[in-house]
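Risk register update: the risk of archive-format incompatibility is retired. Evidence:
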Amino acid sequence: MNTAPCAAAHGWVGLGRIVYASSSEQLGRWLADLDVAPSPVAPLPIQQIVPGLKVEGPIAELDERVHALHKRRHASLTVKT
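Archived output:
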């Protein structure tokens, strides 16, 4: 997942293309499915922050791994009775 400040910094220094495993949009859906409060940061697309930059992602092989990590993290925060 790439955040707006990260994408902006990436664009400012001219690092070139951004490749990311999962998106902020996906994270928002995953958090909603887990009944977790949404991120306090607006999920802006990288192309909106750095127009013209080559962007690749989400990566299908990796996004489900990231999803599983979020499920595991939030399950561990749930108090079990």
